[in-house]
């Protein structure tokens, strides 16, 4: 069990290869929604680790591991969240701000009301590995809701979003660091 949403199965995908200086273990790591071992829509492809012998332990993760993780967390609803009124009021986000950007909102919301944001992933995020980075493509939507005085909500508008980000990991001063870049 990784957390409340996902668990991992890391079974051997072949017999261990034992050589004089090392042991080679091929594990197939598949991430599933917690309590639901449904087959991932992805196919695991084999890959090789560059031949190096200057370290005691080498770990490698394939695209399949990240893709099955993305599928498991998407299936469990981890990419859907609500940003509550308290957080929006902290940043002073209200319906009046959106009225100045989107004139149609002004017709529905004359009085400035607090807002709530609902973020939803509409497709399984696609994760791909490049030589020096990991790319994540996310399709989703953001619904902006006005919170009315009687505690009901009124949808102001919905934005569909497609984002492509790259994450590069580096070891700097014996620490693993990362940088995030929004490509589009």
Summarize the structure.
With 184 residues, the protein is α+β, with helices and mostly antiparallel strands. Helices cover 17% and strands 40% of the residues. Residues 51-184 form the Lipid-binding serum glycoprotein C-terminal domain.
The CATH architecture of the largest domain can be given as Super Roll
SSE sequence, one letter per element: EEEEHEHHHEEEEE
What amount of the residues lies in strands?
A: 35-45%
What's the helical proportion of residues? 10-25%
Shape: elongated
Give the N-to-C terminal Cα separation: 34 Å
- SSE class: alpha+beta
Features:
2 domains, alpha+beta, 40% strand, Bactericidal permeability-increasing protein, domain 2, two-stranded antiparallel sheet, 6-stranded antiparallel β-sheet, 17% helix, 184 residues
Note down, in words, how this protein is organized.
By secondary structure, the protein is an alpha+beta fold. Helices cover 17% and strands 40% of the residues. The chain has four helices and ten strands; from the N terminus they run ββββαβαααβββββ. It has helices at residues 63-75, 85-90, 95-101, 103-108; strands at 6-12, 17-18, 23-24, 27-33, 81-83, 115-121, 126-129, 134-147, 153-172, 175-182. The strands form three sheets. Strands 5, 6, 7, 8, 9 and 10 form a six-stranded antiparallel beta sheet that branches. It has a two-stranded antiparallel sheet with strand order 1-4. One of its GO terms (biological process) is innate immune response. Residues 51-184 form the Lipid-binding serum glycoprotein C-terminal domain.
